[in-house]
Structure formats: C-alpha cells, structure tokens
C-alpha cells in the first residue's frame, strides 16, 4: 500500500441502550416452566417407581427450561437419573424410589 492513503476498514459503533419494555416469553403467564413439567410428570405417573424414561423426560424438560445442552450438576435431572439408576440396581420393589 505504499503511496496510497490508508482507508478505514471498520468503524467502532456503540449501540444505543435497549430498554426492556416487555417480559421475555419465559415470564409469560402461559409459559411452560420446569415446575409445571415436573408437576405434570408426577400427576401422570401416579405412584410408580422412577425409571429411565422419567429421567430422560426430566432431562429434556430441564434442557428446554435452561437452554443448556448439558444437565446441571445437582439439578433435578441429575437427581432423577441417580434415582433411576438406583432403582435399576434395587432387588426388591420396596427398596425402589417412587415418584
């Protein structure tokens, strides 16, 4: 670029602040929350043992609620998976955890 004037390739711009005037969809009164999903699971399941399908359902619900692609350590999905694993190893029904 010898002999040529340098030209600006980019311009730094600071956007104007955005005011939050409307709550996000997660705050709508009809929003599906992890609590509502868990309540529906427990109502539908009745009084039966926690199994792998319950753990998977809760993991999907938690993933959708958090927007993360991993389970939260110590979260509801992790705890449910642990219980489902425990129930798989339990020899007697009375040793299994129910919903």
TrEMBL record:
Keyword presence, Repeat: yes
Keywords for the protein's UniProt record, in alphabetical order: Repeat
Residue intervals of the SMP domain: 32-90
Pfam families documented for this protein: SMP
Presence of keyword Repeat: yes
Assigned protein family: Belongs to the LEA type SMP family.
Protein name, as recorded: SMP domain-containing protein
Lineage start: Eukaryota, Viridiplantae, Streptophyta, Embryophyta, Tracheophyta
